[in-house]
Amino acid sequence: MSAAIFARHDGVWLNQPKRWTAQGDSLELVTDKATDFWQKTHYGFCRDSGHFLGFPTAEAFTAELRIQSDFRELYDQAGIMVRIDAEHWIKAGIEFSDGRAMLSSVLTIGQSDWATAPYEHAAGDFRMRVTVADGVLRLQTSADGKTWPLVRLAPFAAARSCLVGPMACTPEREGLRVRFSGFSLKPPLGKDLHDLS
Questions:
Q1: Structure confidence by residue, pLDDT tens digits, 3-61
Q2: What is the pLDDT of residue 86?
Q3: Is the pLDDT of residue 2 over 60?
Q4: Element (H or E) spanning 34, and its range?
């Protein structure tokens, strides 16, 4: 499943943004005000208001996505999400924090964790890849679509199907413009952990 995927009708919006367009393999959106995904940890609150366009998966899969945006304000974020339900999901991509764009991932199993690291490349144009198979989630990123270093390896709840697709949030504002493209959803790649191709 690739190419004109955003024009397909099996994508399901969670919190559809007021402004968005899809054409061919490109999805462009502008975030609404105070949108976020978070469960309890540190802050104590639960938020399930972020924008997410989910496509149904098989039990095991690999998904890839290109993300382009200009992250400027605290917690501006966009990337990829894998979601079973409101308490079992991961979101990953770039998030603006501590004065710079950071590589960020949040894994939620009842409660959310948060892992960040400096991103070594241009944060305005990057790719994410996620593979789910045998109860394990493998998260990778790429600046060029050729080399995919590991971001995270984590257990992930087994499910016959979940949803995967583009995600964007702006907890502190509205108006982040994001372009998603190059989305593909395929059987799991089955590559060795240290194979970065």
A1: 456 766 689 999 999 999 998 889 999 999 999 999 998 887 899 999 999 999 999 99
A2: 95
A3: no
A4: none
**Four-CA torsion 121, 123, 125, 128, nearest 10 degrees:** 90
Distance CA 30, CA 102 (A): 20
Residue 158: Cβ within 10 Å count: 13
What is the rounded CA–CA span in Å between residue 10 and residue 169? Answer: 22
Please state whether the predicted TM-score (pTM) of the whole model is above 0.90.
yes
* 3-state secondary structure string across 116-146: EEECCCCCCEEEEEEEEECCEEEEEEECCCC
Residue 42 CA: distances (Å) to CA of 37, 54, 109, 157, 165: 14, 27, 15, 23, 27
pLDDT at position 1 is 42
b (16+ CB within 10 A) / e for 42-74: eeeeebbbbbbbbbebeeebbbbbbbbbebeee
pLDDT-above-70 percentage for the chain: 96
User: Please, what are the domains in the chain?
Assistant: 5-186 (2.60.120.200)
